[in-house]
Amino acid sequence: MKKVLLEMEDQKNSYEQKAKESLQKVLEEKMNAEQQLQSTQRSLALAEQKCEEWRSQYEALKEDWRTLGSQHRELESQLNVLQSKLQGADSRDLQMNQALRFLENEHQELQAKIECLQGDRDLCSLDTQDLQEAMWAMAPNADGSDCCSTSSVPGQ
């Protein structure tokens, strides 16, 4: 019986040793699991922080995008107004250039008429002067004698 008791004692020690080893292994696994849990929780906290930063940046960019879109639409509207004004100015410029060419042509025509009239005036002036000289030559002298008579010739 002693032998059986010794064998049972050995089995008991063997089971206790295996139980301790198993318990030790379970405790190590538990500690590893807790460390992994803590590491995962830190990673999750960091990921949530990054996510919040990105969300904040996204919202800021979205607001900037809205502002830029609004500014873009306003600038397009101003561009359209300016293009319309430019077209109006171009049209007025074309009209003014046409009017200027018309006035320049009219000025040239009037200048030519003036030159023609001045030429006519000069001819008329010469003709008038010739007529006046001829009339003076035919007009009676101041003493009443005829300028065409022989007595009006000096020295007679």
Written account of the structure:
The protein has 156 residues and is mostly helical. Helix content is 88%, strand content 0%. The protein contains 1 helix and no strands.
* Subunit arrangement of the protein: single chain
Q: What is the count of DSSP helices, taking H or I runs of 4+ residues? A: 1
Largest beta-sheet details: none
Query: What radius of gyration results from the CA coordinates?
Result: 64 Å
Regions with pLDDT < 50 over 5+ consecutive residues?
150-156
DSSP, total strands: 0
N-to-C span: 210 Å
- Share of residues in strands: under 5%
Shape: rod-shaped
How much helix, percentage-wise, in residues? over 70%
How would you spell out the order of helices and strands?
H
Structural class: mainly alpha
**What is the mean pLDDT?**
89
Task: Summarize it.
Keywords: Coiled coil. The protein is mainly α and 156 residues long.
Identify the notable features of this structure and list them briefly.
88% helix, disordered C terminus, 156 residues, mainly alpha, 1 helix
What's the structural blueprint in terms of helices and strands?
Blueprint lengths: L1 H137 L18
